[in-house]
Specification:
CATH class of the largest domain: Mainly Beta
Shape: globular
Distance between the termini: 91 Å
Number of domains: 3
CATH topology of the largest domain: Neuraminidase
Structural class: mainly beta
Strand content: 25-35%
Largest sheet: 8 strands, antiparallel
Number of strands: 55
Number of helices: 6
Helix content: under 10%
């Protein structure tokens, strides 16, 4: 009878509760089945895993080139897969042949069925269950133990890897790579058992869904271990196996993932084992990070005694981002960005930021540095937060002014689809509460460094990746709700005005070419939008707002040739990071200053260590700003690398008069090179680039670029892969031979854009009548607006025949521009947010042009 009821799919058994009780057979919890395999009353299959010894961690270095991709991967696996150590599994256990399915889990929790619509491609009865927390998985095991009379539980991390390897030492139980059988089902529903089993008969160990393990996540230790159970406590629970759509690198037997225990998403499920939990003593909690050590807890008696309020005070820039060399992890030299800062009750400053190779990579973690009270130098960076192999985008620190520091962070499942997490510290950032999710995965959960308390006592934080909204807590951080209304733009800085309205300034979605203002009179339910008086910001830039203790509002952002007053009753232009003050609740901002010491010009480090000029005209041109005001009333403004400290008096004091603006760099004699080393022709699959006969009647071919029927575009050729190796300290050269046939008024012509990988962009547009150099606000985009190009020379005829244009970039990052062998202009580089070096050709809307060749040479700057 029971066989008839349970017939069908081997992992989908229709079993009644009475049948389950009958199968229990009166066994005490803790008993083990016998034999090679076992099937319980719910149709769940298990296979016996015998005792043994293995090496835990990545033992197969170097990994194959197929697994290693730029950004976040290493030839010997991740840093947390080392040191490799010997592990002995002393007792046999039975491990589930498959992940627990929706059907099986919903016998325990019927209400889970309503979550299937949020489960991605895991919606069928025989799909692995997802949308379950670690606690849910534990409760299922307890329920199953009660029903079947055996000791069901989650596997330890060591048990999981031992069973996954199934006696192998290669990256996968299949060898060096995953065969196509593990990827050919990617387009359809995820079901258990679609790919082949490993040598021990276990399915879906490499990339179906991730699987919860019982362990707290922590670093490995080198000593031999017997039946390890992980750390005694922690913030993260381990997951293993990788999700179907994860790169193969993250599906390796040794790879470690994890998230906080209450996370519920569409990529994590679980499988169960039968067997008593090992009684091994858990490893101690990992030692404190440097930023947590020897932190003073008493409040200094002079913590409120700052600079003389009647005298301007400015100090900086001070480098706060001190990183180790290399990109091994968990700290990375390559890319560090997205800063947040807070003052601490003991007078310290604590700063955190993203550290990664690429912002979309799974390696991204959060670093920290502390400036201890009374010290002048920030300490070297240390690890602050890392959910392993997650792109945990967005974070913010905030001190409530009493004794609690709040840490908000995004917790990713796939890419940047984050949940919003919160934890707190009441001992100056030494220890932190258990992290908890205050908003599940979805849009508008990525925290921005803009947290404030309203006069009603509400806590508010700005969040985006989706519409920029506020999340509001009316009970001091316990419960949070998203506002209905949307702040215009993204990465918005927000605050409350004295009349109770909310006020925000955002990035992009500009109004009349200005940064947008958003104002709400109903606590974020609706917003009204208008243009501010400030220039917009773009990629790599984020403004900040702060209500100063003196009463006025501070705003800091970036500008291009903005005029400010100086104390000689004159004005001079500034570009880069500036600060402004409003005395009338954001209506006007009369006091503005370049964030600079107004000293002689010099190079300082900006984002990723690139050099930028600091003088009375220029300061940093990009960065995700962070700001706080400490107990001594000093304002601390952090860019993506530097710390500036100043008081209210400096902010409201006119700067000294600036010297005459230095002239553009003069042209230099350059070595001559008639023909450049490399050539390529732009290729486009959308038919906007077609091959045509040579316009000079020669044997060579040219291409015709046309955007008459479409929008502008840009093309990077695969032929230029060696351009990534350009060394800006040696200079480089590019050249294009072209004839402009048609051009729409007000649109770009034919462009060449060069980026040297060290923050310097050189973008030139050739139109029918002139040559133009990009000097605009946008520091990240490739499709640049023509109104941000400034003329180098006008009054030309570039339509009559083929003309040769050469761009020679000197070692001092100054460009000499030639037309048909004649020098026609010299320009200094413009900043661009960090990317790998590239060369590209672009076209504006409504353009037709012939191109005979594009050529370049990365060995130096050459005249024709």
């Amino acid at each position: 009878m029971i066989k008839m009821l349970c017939s069908g799919n081997p992992v989908k058994f229709v079993c009644f509760a009475l049948a389950a009780v009958a199968f229990a057979g009166g066994k005490a919890v803790g008993d083990m089945p016998s034999g090679h395999d076992y099937t319980n009353a719910f149709g769940m299959k298990f296979v016996r895993v015998e005792p043994g010894t293995f090496q835990m961690g990545e033992t197969a270095a170097p990994l194959s080139d197929e697994l290693i991709k730029p950004g976040g991967t290493n030839v010997d696996g991740d840093y947390d897969e080392h040191p490799v150590h010997n592990v002995t599994m002393s007792k046999a256990l039975y491990m589930g042949v498959y992940d627990v399915t929706n059907f099986q889990y919903e016998l325990f929790d019927p209400g889970h069925k309503k979550l299937r619509e949020r489960s991605g491609r895991c919606r069928d009865d025989d799909s692995p269950v997802v949308q379950v927390t670690w606690y849910d998985a534990q409760e299922f095991c307890r329920w199953l133990s009660d029903k079947d009379g055996l000791a069901y539980r989650l596997p330890t991390e060591a048990e999981w890897e031992y069973a996954c390897r199934a006696g192998t030492t290669s990256p996968f139980s299949t060898g060096l790579t995953l065969p196509s059988e593990f990827t050919e089902h990617l387009a359809g529903s995820v079901k258990v058992g679609q790919a082949p089993a490993n040598p021990w008969g276990l399915y879906d160990m490499h990339g179906s869904v991730e699987q919860w393990c019982s362990d707290w996540y922590g670093p490995y230790e080198a000593a031999d271990q017997k039946d390890p159970v992980g750390r005694a406590t922690g913030d993260i629970k381990v997951t293993r196996g990788g999700h179907r759509f994860t790169d193969a690198y993250y599906k390796r037997s040794a790879n470690r993932l994890g998230t906080i225990a209450e996370d519920k998403n569409s990529i994590i499920g679980f499988r169960v084992v039968i067997g008593d939990m090992p009684q091994t003593k858990a490893l101690a909690k990992p030692p404190l990070q440097p930023y947590q050590r020897d932190v003073r807890q008493e409040v200094p008696v002079d913590v409120t005694q700052g600079t003389d309020p009647d005298k301007p005070y400015f100090e900086g820039p001070r480098l706060f981002m001190k990183l180790p060399s290399g990109d091994r992890g968990p700290l990375y030299r390559r890319h560090n960005h997205f800063v947040s800062v807070t003052d601490c009750p003991n007078g310290d400053l604590l700063a955190i930021w993203h550290t990664c190779i690429g912002e979309s990579g799974r390696e991204l973690s959060v670093a920290a540095s502390r400036l201890r009270y009374g010290k002048k130098e920030w300490e070297p960076a240390s690890l602050f937060w890392d959910t392993p192999d997650r792109n945990d985008h967005g974070h913010a620190l905030w001190f409530d002014g009493d004794r609690t520091i709040f840490h908000f962070n995004g917790i990713a499942d796939v890419s940047r689809n984050v949940a919003l997490m919160l934890r707190t510290s009441t001992d100056n950032g030494v220890t932190w509460s258990q992290p908890r999710i205050i908003a599940g995965h979805g849009p508008s959960r990525m925290p921005i460094e803009s947290v404030f308390r309203t006069r009603e006592g509400f806590y508010c934080i700005s969040c985006d990746k989706g519409p920029n909204v506020l999340w509001v807590s009316r009970d001091k951080g316990l419960a949070w709700a998203m506002t209905e209304g949307e702040i215009r733009g993204k990465h918005a800085a927000a605050m409350q005005l004295n009349d109770g309205r909310l006020f925000a300034l955002g990035r992009e979605r500009n109004i009349d070419g200005k940064m947008p203002i958003s104002i709400s009179g109903d606590m974020g339910r609706t917003w009204q939008y208008s243009a501010s008086e400030f220039q917009p910001v773009s990629w790599g830039q984020r403004p900040v707002l702060l209500r100063l203790k003196e009463g006025p509002i501070l705003f800091a952002s970036f500008c291009k040739r903005m005029m400010i007053k100086n104390d000689a009753a004159r004005q001079h232009p500034i570009s880069g990071l500036f600060a402004a003050v409003s005395f009338d609740e954001g209506e006007t901002w009369p006091d503005r200053r370049l964030v600079s010491d107004d000293g002689p010009g010099r190079d300082i480090e900006t984002m990723n260590g690139h050099l930028i000029t600091l003088d009375q005209y220029n300061s940093e041109v990009a960065g995700y700003l962070a700001v706080c005001q400490s107990a001594d009333n000093v304002i601390h403004l952090l860019s993506s690398r530097e710390h500036y400290a100043f008081n209210y008096k400096w902010l409201t004091t006119l700067p000294p008069p600036a010297p005459e603006i230095p002239p553009l760099p003069q042209a230099k004699e350059l070595p001559e090179k008639v023909q450049l080393a490399k050539k390529f022709k732009p290729v486009d699959s959308r038919g906007r680039v077609t091959e045509v006969p040579s316009p000079d009647g020669g044997a060579s071919k040219a291409v015709k670029i046309s955007t008459i029927d479409g929008g502008g575009f840009y093309l990077r050729s695969t032929d230029t892969e060696d351009f990534i190796n350009v060394d800006h300290t040696k200079g480089f050269t590019a050249e294009i031979k072209t004839r402009i046939l048609k051009r729409k008024d007000g649109e770009r012509g034919l462009d060449i854009e060069l980026y040297d990988g060290a923050a310097a962009r050189y973008a030139v547009s050739f139109t029918d009548t002139g040559i133009y150099w990009y000097e605009g606000f946008v520091v990240g985009s490739a499709l640049l607006s023509f109104d941000q190009f400034m003329p180098v020379v006008e009054g030309l005829d570039n339509t009559d025949r083929m003309h040769t244009f050469r761009i020679a970039v000197r070692r001092d990052r100054v460009t000499q521009i030639y037309r048909d062998g004649k020098l026609i202009g010299t320009r200094r580089y413009e900043y661009r947010t960090p990317r790998e070096a590239y060369i590209q050709v672009g076209a504006g809307t409504g353009l037709e042009a012939l191109v005979e060749y594009v050529a370049y040479d990365i060995t130096g700057a050459y005249q024709p």
